UniProtKB/TrEMBL annotation, chain A:
<dbReference type="InterPro" id="IPR027417">
    <property type="entry name" value="P-loop_NTPase"/>
</dbReference>
<dbReference type="Pfam" id="PF22534">
    <property type="entry name" value="RFC_C"/>
</dbReference>
<dbReference type="InterPro" id="IPR003593">
    <property type="entry name" value="AAA+_ATPase"/>
</dbReference>
<feature type="domain" description="AAA+ ATPase">
    <location>
        <begin position="34"/>
        <end position="187"/>
    </location>
</feature>
<dbReference type="InterPro" id="IPR050238">
    <property type="entry name" value="DNA_Rep/Repair_Clamp_Loader"/>
</dbReference>
<dbReference type="Pfam" id="PF13177">
    <property type="entry name" value="DNA_pol3_delta2"/>
</dbReference>
<dbReference type="Pfam" id="PF21960">
    <property type="entry name" value="RCF1-5-like_lid"/>
</dbReference>
<dbReference type="InterPro" id="IPR008921">
    <property type="entry name" value="DNA_pol3_clamp-load_cplx_C"/>
</dbReference>
<protein>
    <recommendedName>
        <fullName>AAA+ ATPase domain-containing protein</fullName>
    </recommendedName>
</protein>
UniProtKB/TrEMBL annotation, chain B:
<dbReference type="InterPro" id="IPR013748">
    <property type="entry name" value="Rep_factorC_C"/>
</dbReference>
<comment type="similarity">
    <text>Belongs to the activator 1 small subunits family.</text>
</comment>
<dbReference type="InterPro" id="IPR008921">
    <property type="entry name" value="DNA_pol3_clamp-load_cplx_C"/>
</dbReference>
<dbReference type="InterPro" id="IPR047854">
    <property type="entry name" value="RFC_lid"/>
</dbReference>
<dbReference type="InterPro" id="IPR050238">
    <property type="entry name" value="DNA_Rep/Repair_Clamp_Loader"/>
</dbReference>
<dbReference type="Pfam" id="PF08542">
    <property type="entry name" value="Rep_fac_C"/>
</dbReference>
<keyword id="KW-0067">ATP-binding</keyword>
<protein>
    <recommendedName>
        <fullName>AAA+ ATPase domain-containing protein</fullName>
    </recommendedName>
</protein>
<dbReference type="Pfam" id="PF00004">
    <property type="entry name" value="AAA"/>
</dbReference>
Length: 355, 362
């Protein structure tokens, strides 16, 4: 039994539930003889991969769904072997080059050359290479991609997938057709949730769908997962049915609360433990920063909010440069404590003065 | 019997001829298919000879002299993307060496392995070969080969150093042409061995001319003002303008009349309303409002780098802000942009900028 997210994933461009204009345009594109390189970007859970899969299916028919997982090995110039997981059908190959860290350039170069050398089966004029997380590619790899994209255009096309185009070099952007996949609106999520529950044969009150889509943050995958876990928790649904939120979010909120409660070195130690706990469960640092910031600023005035915000932005940036993220998160927490404590003390002094 | 044999023969020969006819047809079909195979417009409208190159008069003048017999120095072209660096040198090579110019040039770019070992082996070997002073068809041509190092600023310093001596030693048989975006990333010993040419960003009216020509040849229909907004979006990068134009055309189908909205969407431009929305949210001095707008932006998948970029122009042209305020905001924009490129989170950087503006305007 598969998860609902996978079970009810639209398979073709016609089945897509929202961004129908784009689906129409994509159909034009697939039919036209010259298919360009694509750069698909948008927040997570907006349906980038679903759209890519639908495009592939539209191009190649159901054969594109038969995917096998392989480990491919590449040699670096210094004769070191690196391995990467690829997902491929007869027509396309999907890979996430950032898996191999700074060696991603080799993967990009070798893989594309390798794929472009062999001609595709049947009458299809080209194969497709899907690269995930292009915004995490190193500068070298992106440079390597530039010319390769032009050189092998006769036998392969690239579909690049990224969260945002900010870190994709302009040179690559100018060689691709950009497709922005915006997150679905609240109503769209509600609609999809209704469709899913109808297909699943469960009765869902509108109020619950509303609340789920509110807390899903425009992430459709998350919304459907929440629906499924609600169903698992209690069915038939009752009034005020609690929505199951990811544990770590609750945990993070509590952590923020602890920080606001008291500012002292002992508290910092306690917080450190909790931060380690979060990091151990593979919660990415930028989500932690974001979550903490959102909670922490609730108790500040404007001036303070700006200060905290600036600190968060600085520490998060530095955390991507260093190798140990915990140090930077802790720095942020300590900074916040200092700022907040000063603010409270000033307020108290002002109070004393008034008295 | 005779008749049968004859008919048999006839049938056979007829069959054969029809077969050959079929294969002939198939062959020609294949050929025509190959011929009609669509080329990206960027390649299709690449200048064929150097006089087609727009705007870069100095380079064209120098290359023109070389075509009439003057000596070719080692060249270093630098300038922003899409200004015609690769096109210029390829067009010049075509004119110098005729249609078989590919045999006379070695084109290496960042996608090829270009470490120090390749410079030592491949480049050295190629540069040591001598070239004859006549082409296969008997025409005279300069007795050297051309090594084009595209995207030279992506080469390592070690590889660049390895190039130094090779460049000097093999001047008899080889000329180098380095193309790069940033001159500062080329080591000085290399720059001093080349004559440098700066490629300027293309002027708007020149891009307009080109785009109009392409549109009329490809039968693209568009609303008035579309080309203008396209040019604005591409910031002097002709390649980007042409690609965007073609993307729009492909995505919307042949009969669609292009509108400004299409162009904005496909050139990755953030709509002006969004920028204004962010600014007014900052003006209210309400943190939650700013948070809401930034959240909305990231949900819509608007790339933060583009937002920063356009916000910069917006602030620059804004009449409400004093110079001091602008300076403060610009400083923050540059800081945020740097951090963003360096791996910072989009949401946090935009929030940082937003709150800074909030404080400085309120």
């Amino acid at each position: 039994m598969s998860m609902w997210v996978d079970k009810y994933r639209p398979r073709s461009l016609d089945e897509l539930d929202y961004h129908k204009d784009m689906a129409q345009n994509l159909k034009h594109l697939v039919k036209s003889p010259d298919f360009p390189h694509l750069l698909v970007y948008g927040p997570s859970g907006a349906g980038k991969k679903t759209r890519i899969a639908a495009i592939l299916r539209e191009l190649y028919g159901p054969g594109a769904d038969r995917v096998r997982i392989q480990r491919q090995a590449f040699d670096t110039p210094s004769k070191k072997k690196i391995e990467i997981t690829t997902y491929s059908s007869n027509y396309h190959i999907e890979v996430n080059p950032s898996e191999v860290g700074f060696q991603d350039r080799v993967v990009v170069q070798e893989l594309i050359k390798h794929v472009a050398e062999t001609h595709p089966l049947d009458q299809h004029p080209f194969k497709v290479i899907v690269l995930q997380e292009v915004d995490r590619l190193s500068k070298d790899a992106q440079d390597a991609l530039r010319r390769t994209m032009e050189k092998y255009i006769s036998s392969c096309r690239l579909i690049l997938c990224a969260l945002s185009t900010s870190r994709v070099t302009p040179a690559i952007q100018s060689r691709c057709l950009p497709l922005r996949v915006a997150a679905p609106s609240k109503n769209q999520i509600v609609k999809v949730l209704q469709i899913v529950s109808k297909k699943e044969g469960i009765i869902m009150p509108l109020e619950l769908a509303d609340r789920i889509s509110d807390s899903a943050d425009g992430n459709l995958r998350r919304a459907i997962l929440m629906l499924e876990s609600c169903r698992a928790e209690k069915y038939p649904f009752v009034d005020k049915q609690p929505i199951v939120e990811p544990d770590w979010e609750k945990y993070l909120r509590e952590t923020a609360f602890i920080i606001v409660q008291e500012q002292s070195p002992q508290r910092l130690l306690l917080v450190r433990e909790r931060l380690y706990e979060l990091l151990c469960h593979c919660i990415p640092a930028d989500l932690i920063f974001r979550g903490l910031l959102k909670e922490l600023v609730k108790n500040c005035d404007n001036q303070l909010k700006a200060e905290v915000c600036a600190e968060a932005a600085r520490c998060q940036w530095r955390s991507t440069r260093g190798s140990k993220t915990i140090i930077h998160i802790e720095e942020f927490v300590a900074k916040f404590m200092a700022i907040y404590k000063r603010f409270i003390e000033q307020a108290m002094m002002a109070d004393d003065f008034d008295d | 019997m005779d008749a049968f044999l004859k008919t048999g023969k006839l049938g056979k020969s007829a069959g054969r001829s029809s077969e050959s006819a079929v294969s002939g047809v198939a062959g020609s079909q294949k050929e025509s298919k190959k011929k009609s195979w669509p080329v990206p417009w960027v390649e299709k409208y690449r200048p064929r000879n150097i006089d087609d190159v727009v705007q870069q008069e100095e380079v064209v003048a120098v290359l023109g002299k070389i075509l009439t017999g003057a000596d070719l120095p080692n060249l270093l072209f630098y300038g922003p993307p899409g200004t015609g660096k690769t096109s210029t040198i390829l067009a010049a090579a075509r004119q110098l060496f005729g249609d078989n110019y590919k045999e006379r040039i070695l084109e290496l770019n960042a996608s090829d392995e270009r470490g120090i070992s390749v410079i030592r082996e491949k480049v050295k070997k190629f540069s040591q070969q001598t070239a004859s002073a006549t082409l296969p068809d008997g025409r005279p041509c300069p007795p050297f080969k051309l090594i084009i190092l595209d995207e030279a600023d992506a080469m390592t310093v070690a590889a660049q150093s390895a190039l130094r001596r090779t460049m000097e030693k093999e001047t008899k048989s080889t000329r180098f042409c380095l193309l790069c975006n940033y001159l500062s990333r080329i080591i000085p010993p290399i720059t001093s061995r080349c004559s440098k040419f700066r490629f300027k960003p293309l002027k708007d009216d020149l891009i307009l001319q080109r785009l109009e020509k392409i549109c009329s040849e490809e039968g693209v229909r568009f609303e008035s003002g579309v080309l203008k907004s396209l040019i604005k979006a591409c910031e002097g990068d002709l390649r980007r303008a042409i690609t965007s134009l073609q993307s729009c055309h492909r995505l919307k189908g042949k009969d669609h009349v292009l509108t400004i909205v299409d162009v904005e969407e496909l050139s990755g431009l953030v709509p002006l309303e969004r920028i204004e929305e962010l600014f007014t949210a900052c003006q209210t001095g309400n943190y939650d409002k700013v948070d809401e707008v930034v959240e909305k932006m990231s949900r819509n998948g608007l790339p933060a780098a583009k937002v920063l970029d356009q916000f910069f122009h917006f602030v620059l042209e804004s009449g409400e802000l004093t110079d001091a305020q602008k300076a403060k905001i610009f400083q923050k924009i540059s800081e945020c942009n740097f951090r963003l490129m360096d791996g910072g989170s989009e949401y946090l950087q935009l929030m940082d900028l937003g709150t800074t503006i909030m404080l400085s305007v309120a």
